[in-house]
Amino acid sequence: MIYFFYILAGVVSGVFGGLGMGGGTLLIPILTIFFSFEQKLSQGINLLSFLLMALFSIVIHYKNGYIVTKHIGWIIFFGMLFSIFGAFLVNFVPSKLLKIIFGVFLCVLAIIEIFKIIFSKKKK
Fold first, then answer.
1. What is the pLDDT of residues 86-123, one digit of tens each?
2. Which residues of 31-55 are buried (b: 16+ CB within 10 A; e: fewer)?
3. Would you list the DSSP string of the chain?
4. pTM score, whole prediction
């Protein structure tokens, strides 16, 4: 029965990841809240699954013309640089603090999206 819920978590995060909003936005809370995984383990699982999902998404989005490759080298370079920095930094941050930081991050994103909706309706 537990495998059904693992598959469901993969389906939900895969769909949202394919839509471009980031499957980890859902996968990490699912793993920590419903499966009681540690925050660092959830983030590691998310990173691994993200790599595989991103490969398929990149191919599909590229074929559909939704990826602009101009200046992408700079984005990749700095993304990799700070990913390495973040991977080392997370070793020194307690899992409980990571949960709080991630929760605050999700709340801030939600607030930003709410304001975008409100202000886009006022412009129309």
1. 888 888 989 889 889 988 988 998 899 899 888 887 76
2. bbeeeebebeebbebbeebbeebee
3. -HHHHHHHHHHHHHHHHHTTS-THHHHHHIIIIIS---HHHHHHHHHHHHHHHHHHHHHHHHHTT----TTHHHHHHHHHHHHHHHHHHGGGS-HHHHHHHHHHHHHHHHHHHHHHHHHHHHH-
4. 0.67
Q: Provide the residue ranges of all domains of the chain, joining segments of one domain with +.
A: 2-93
CA distance 17 to 23: 4
Query: What is the Cα gyration radius of the chain?
Result: 17
